[in-house]
């Protein structure tokens, strides 16, 4: 007997803006994720502090080409099929379907591209798991409306959902509304197309945008179920438990506050209402949630069917501000009991089990791990082969922890899609050298390389894991 249920959805995950490329092909329009450069200005642009609404000659923009999956998707999906993937999580580029975001009619060439891609998945026995918005926001909507801080985007997103749910009925069953919705508060331009003018109330803008996305997510769930009752719609958060640095009650409370803040959006999407603690906190800060007639009813009635999340590391919190160190997006305190990756992410397999239990206890809905993996520098041989035992070790321990949560704790888990199953551009740093994949792609941080695909050692390891439904991990 396997620890994992029959039909467990093993697979891998990517995002259009990190792998697809073809930014100016097939009638596609320009998106916020296209104009985020590699290099020193990347974080300032992602934060909405530096205005970059188009390309310039001084920066390299990795999303323009990604790994050119736009032209290689059949080859890539065949490799996923060879590994035995049951599901493949990918995202739709909004600007392929509506180049500006507000057209009356969709772009047929973009619709056909994804239809062909989904059919290619089914040819290999792979169920697509589709993120509707993985940080993508049309630049036209940012320039014209100010991104998600404008309520107009709700109806435009509804229109996108109506089109794709109808067009892909029968081809796609599993949907995610917004990738890592909580990233609005951490990287607002990347997360919601927010650029801040001088003197603007940033927090008010971020929570306004968040409210609009939450209403849009509920409406997407409504439309999905109306179009096809078999559709399952999930939310998605950047997860990872925050531990107290010590048993000092002040540290415990600091960690509790951090966890609560992280779950805030999912509380709304899964429970159907803003939690009391959040409303009181926002009121104290003078931030107004822009409720309009019907919003509360929509949020309450159309909650998600399952909770999906990314998990890379846990975090640590101390009430002593001197303890805090800068992290990748999330500031944290170094946990003395854990090792870290080359990029400083604390490696904590047991933390995945803890996160699974806390999410399941909190929401009592099925869970789906849609991102987990190790970013590392790989050194290929002349044939492109990488002996990535360090990646296998990382994944093995996380799969074991996941199995414990299912078998020993009774967590209802739908599936697991390892992040960056094929090497792609890092969302946080814009690097290719921060590699996650089972498949090596010959591409460097400056965009040089042949784009040749080759299997790493972990390719055959994961193939065996899937074939045995998680039983053989050595």
Automatic annotation (TrEMBL):
The active site is at 371 (nucleophile). GO terms for molecular function: 6-phospho-beta-glucosidase activity. InterPro entries: GH, GH_1_N_CS, Glyco_hydro_1, Glyco_hydro_1_AS. The keyword Membrane does not apply. Gene3D superfamilies: Glycosidases. It holds the Pfam family Glyco_hydro_1. Its EC number is 3.2.1.86. Keywords: Glycosidase, Hydrolase. Belongs to the glycosyl hydrolase 1 family. This is 6-phospho-beta-glucosidase. It comes from Breznakia pachnodae.
